[in-house]
TrEMBL record:
Gene Ontology molecular functions: oxidoreductase activity, acting on paired donors, with oxidation of a pair of donors resulting in the reduction of molecular oxygen to two molecules of water
Protein name: Acyl-CoA desaturase
Pfam families documented for this protein: FA_desaturase (PF00487)
BP term (GO), one: lipid biosynthetic process
Bias type Polar residues, positions: 385-394
Disordered, as annotated region: 379-402
Native source species: Mycolicibacterium tusciae
Membrane-spanning intervals of the chain: none
All copies of domain Fatty acid desaturase, residue ranges: 69-334
CDD domains attached to this UniProt entry: Delta6-FADS-like
GO terms under cellular component: membrane
Taxonomic placement: Bacteria, Bacillati, Actinomycetota, Actinomycetes, Mycobacteriales
Amino acid sequence: MAIADVAAFAHLSDADVEALGRELDAIRSDVEESLGERDAAYIRRTIKFQRTLDVAARLIIACSRSRAGWLLGTASLAFAKSVENMEIAHNVGHGQWDWMNDPEIHSSTWEWDMVGVSSQWRYSHNYRHHVFSNVVGVDDDLGFGVIRMTRDQPWKREHLVQPLRNLLLASIFEWGIGLHGIHSERDRLAPDAARVGAARRAFAGKIARQSLKDYVFFPALSRSRWRRTLAANTTANLLRNLWAYVVIFCGHFPDGAEKFTADVLDKETKGEWYLRQMLGAANFRAGPLLAFSSGNLCYQIEHHLFPDLPSNRLAQIAVRVQGLCQKYDLPYTTGSIVRQYFQVLRTIHTLAFPDRLPRTAAGDASAYGDPAACTISSGEDAGDMTTSPRSAGNTVAPHRFG
């Protein structure tokens, strides 16, 4: 569907849409002009913390002999991996810190601690996902090619097992991201067989390095206690995968996160692009620790509006975005992470079945391409969904429009 077909935005004129776009551009300009040493210190401090925690966790795993020590070390390692994955690598890969001109903290040089190749992910994620967010058949992140997330996607018998696919994807999420990246590279580079082959070799090399590091090198350092270290590394990777999966799915697939057909891209203006991004994202409420642990992707709306602005600024940006939602009478979708994930699971299980089956819940309208889906009731009827006049809205981020 097109932006104009969404009831929550029907009251806006073309002039309103363009005015909203200019105000969002102003937010970007204000943040860019104020970036400085305080922001640089934040990312350097975060990297130092993560690396220190990683070393400490591995020492605890290797040196402690108790079950409690193993649990503490494994949990610490999982947290260190999550911080590296989300608050550092994901955000550095978006170019959020390129303005520092630091060759060690730059989108073109950072390689993350996962089997996927960072350069391949940057194309599939920064371009195909963020520019064409939630456009069926264009945004590869919409269900990651294995899960049906909207009725705009034709139902197939294979979708009956998508609840199981969902569990598998969650547990091996880093592998899903890696395969996702190489498939996008194949599409981008075809029919140049040589370059496709080089991309595949780069992916295979990254898999080999990651596997050797986590499942051979560190266990070998533990010598007779290698099984203990191997189990800790495997568990930490599993926990990191599960957490990254939950954060990503809660930001893209709960009620209120709309999906679009490709015709929405026809003659799309910058203001309309902002609105489409808003419709395709959702936040979840988080305190400082949860926000940090999620890479500040609890502010997914703001991240989709401004994916290349530093993550430590998203909380302050969110205040201004909510103000714009109030000014233009737009929804701003947010809620507890538990509620958001419950809605995601309900959509996945509902869309596993043919469309002719009756809808089982009024709240899962966003799974069906319903224009009213993004409007969430305010007040007590909204449960723990909060915010603006309509009570839940979405926003967008230019990865530099045009």
